[in-house]
């Protein structure tokens, strides 16, 4: 075994303790996560986190990253536990120190989560709830910088770490595409599950559903019926998949959009600003009248009809959108899979949630979705920290 060393054994035992602590104290962990996430999405996040931790040894054996001194992490504002596993817990196998700046949107929850995880295992990470300027001063000599969030902000932050390996994890359009050969019942269930993950507050949720015009009526009828069965209520109650939104301003953004699109709403449309709630809503457009596709952190389903698959490919590959390509879920249109694979990570007859694996590279080929920058060279591709560290620092 490549890593059969005393130090590596200690590191792996630390992750074993973390897994055990998460399992043993799951109720306490759920109380923390459901401050932001719905109960069901928090449970799914815990299971994904455990699976990724269990795959950590095989991952580092596969990519063999060398030991580095420091990683600086600009942490995400959602999927806090899973992100912590990806950006801190697994890198602790090859990094001596990990500095984390929490998102201000999720600060109090992130502090609780960090304290919880540190009680389970002594991960070499520090949570620094300080300004970006002070964080840069403290983390300026980092070997690797992990940034999540806004693309334009990432470019500004990257310039302040000119010597570091800079990894950007962003977001994309993440289209669902329903072709003429699709199993409508299965596609609809996966479409709903993907859009309502944590009430839609996740960067992997699909922002548009392209449906062949011959499948429109069947898909809409099935989709709406599946949506009617969704449980709505408090986010910390098991089974409630739709709840008032956590992040401020989302209901106002949704209300403005739905007011503009009121003639295209075929289901739902209610918004309650007083509790930051958006009713599951279906908006229908033709490809010719699609307008701007917006990333909503709420359960809005934008269904767009098309006549020919090449229309969808051309729309996705247009210059103003090609840099936002992350994932695409293709149902019943096998001829589209290879056409999109050069720009997207493609899930065939599955959602992106169904195929994501925390121990393997993930993402698309658009700079606004994800990129790696080293010595001024930007490249967009599916990313995994251990693989990127091995590629850059393993050569030295």
TrEMBL record:
<dbReference type="InterPro" id="IPR016160">
    <property type="entry name" value="Ald_DH_CS_CYS"/>
</dbReference>
<dbReference type="InterPro" id="IPR015590">
    <property type="entry name" value="Aldehyde_DH_dom"/>
</dbReference>
<dbReference type="InterPro" id="IPR016161">
    <property type="entry name" value="Ald_DH/histidinol_DH"/>
</dbReference>
<dbReference type="GO" id="GO:0016620">
    <property type="term" value="F:oxidoreductase activity, acting on the aldehyde or oxo group of donors, NAD or NADP as acceptor"/>
</dbReference>
<dbReference type="InterPro" id="IPR016162">
    <property type="entry name" value="Ald_DH_N"/>
</dbReference>
<protein>
    <submittedName>
        <fullName>Aldehyde dehydrogenase</fullName>
    </submittedName>
</protein>
<dbReference type="InterPro" id="IPR016163">
    <property type="entry name" value="Ald_DH_C"/>
</dbReference>
<feature type="domain" description="Aldehyde dehydrogenase">
    <location>
        <begin position="98"/>
        <end position="365"/>
    </location>
</feature>
<keyword id="KW-0560">Oxidoreductase</keyword>
<dbReference type="InterPro" id="IPR050740">
    <property type="entry name" value="Aldehyde_DH_Superfamily"/>
</dbReference>
<dbReference type="Pfam" id="PF00171">
    <property type="entry name" value="Aldedh"/>
</dbReference>
């Amino acid at each position: 075994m490549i890593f059969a060393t005393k130090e590596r054994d200690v590191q792996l035992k630390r992750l074993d303790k973390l897994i055990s602590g998460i399992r043993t104290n799951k109720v306490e962990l759920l109380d923390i996560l459901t401050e932001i996430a719905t109960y069901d999405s928090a449970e799914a996040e815990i299971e994904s986190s455990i699976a990724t931790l269990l795959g950590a040894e095989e991952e580092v054996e596969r990519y063999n990253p060398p030991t580095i001194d420091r990683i600086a992490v600009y942490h995400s504002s959602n999927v806090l536990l899973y992100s912590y596993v990806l950006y801190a817990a697994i890198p602790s196998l090859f990094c001596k120190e990990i500095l984390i700046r929490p998102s201000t949107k999720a600060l109090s929850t992130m502090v609780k989560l960090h304290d919880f995880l540190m009680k389970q295992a002594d991960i070499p990470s520090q949570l620094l709830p300080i300004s970006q300027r002070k964080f840069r001063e403290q983390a300026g000599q980092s070997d690797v910088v992990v940034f999540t969030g806004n693309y334009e902000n990432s470019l500004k932050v990257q310039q302040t770490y000119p010597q570091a390996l800079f990894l950007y994890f962003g977001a994309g359009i993440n289209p669902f595409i329903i072709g003429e050969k699709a199993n409508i019942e299965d596609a609809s269930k996966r479409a709903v599950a993907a859009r309502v993950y944590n009430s839609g507050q996740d960067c992997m949720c699909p922002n548009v559903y392209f449906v062949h015009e011959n499948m429109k009526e069947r898909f809409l009828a099935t989709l709406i019926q599946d949506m009617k069965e969704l449980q709505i209520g408090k986010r910390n109650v098991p089974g409630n998949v739709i709840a008032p939104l956590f992040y401020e301003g989302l209901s106002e953004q949704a209300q403005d959009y739905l007011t503009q699109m009121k003639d295209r709403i075929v289901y739902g449309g209610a918004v309650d600003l007083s509790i930051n709630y958006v009713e599951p809503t279906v908006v229908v457009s033709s490809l010719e009248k699609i307008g701007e596709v917006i990333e909503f952190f709420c359960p809005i389903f934008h269904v767009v009809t098309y006549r020919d698959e090449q229309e969808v490919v051309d729309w996705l590959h247009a210059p103003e959108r090609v840099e936002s390509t992350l994932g695409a879920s293709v149902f019943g249109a096998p001829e589209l899979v290879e056409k999109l694979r050069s720009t997207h990570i493609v899930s065939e007859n599955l959602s992106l949630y169904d195929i994501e694996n925390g121990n393997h590279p993930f993402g698309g080929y658009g700079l606004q979705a994800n990129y790696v920058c080293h010595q001024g060279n930007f490249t967009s591709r599916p990313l995994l920290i251990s693989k990127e560290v091995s590629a850059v620092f393993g050569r030295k």
